[in-house]
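Dear colleagues,

For the upcoming journal club I promised to circulate an example of a predicted protein-ligand complex. I picked one with zinc ion because it came up in last month's discussion. The inputs are reproduced below in full, followed by the predicted structure.
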Amino acid sequence: MLDLKSDYHVHCNYNDHSPTELSIEKVTKYAEEINLNKLAFTEHVRKTSEWIPKYLEEIDRIVSSGTKITIISGFEAKILKNGTVDIPHEYEGHFLIASFHTKFYNKQNWLSALKSTISLPYVNVIGHLAPEESFELTDNELGELSKLLNENGKTVEINAKYRRPAMNWLRIFRDNNVKFHLGSDAHSLVEVGNFSSITNLIEFINS
Ligand SMILES: [Zn+2]
Ligand SMILES: [Zn+2]
């Protein structure tokens, strides 16, 4: 069953395009108001990001101030062409969503980067997984991916912003017992914990 009270993908004001109202404190307060049980801050990170220590300190401060929500400090990082992810090595132990944020324009390169990312021990989740417009995966390829995800203990995120993965992918993942959780991918306060855009996908998994 998908836990509607846990949001594993939330951005805050450390990223380059979120509003300043999205402070770690305000997001936490809002999440308490709407009775979430679990909240993962997963700010966009790059190897060159310099704000990380301040970000982690701020999350620590909120956690130690005694909130009733379980707060996870994490990141979302881009899957790179070589099949690694764009995060500085010293932060690899944190909760990590790996997502495609750039186009590969080539199915085989895309697939091989994805497989290599799935095999990285420090990646926890594959975010908003979907093919590019120019290609689709076969059922066999999705079956193979499911196997690889399971062997490596990875979770597939069901993402409310992009409404992904698509139903046909979810069906194959579900039939292969792939693990799922929910991520709002909130870039504003009202999106935190809001999964109303993916009610059909949630019902499909929970049925
Ligand atoms: Zn993303
Ligand atoms: Zn995101």
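Two points we might discuss: Residues 76, 99, 101, 127-128 surround zinc ion (ligand 1) (CB under 6 Å). Helices lie at 24-33, 52-64, 107-118, 139-151, 167-175, 199-206.

See you all on Thursday,
B. R.
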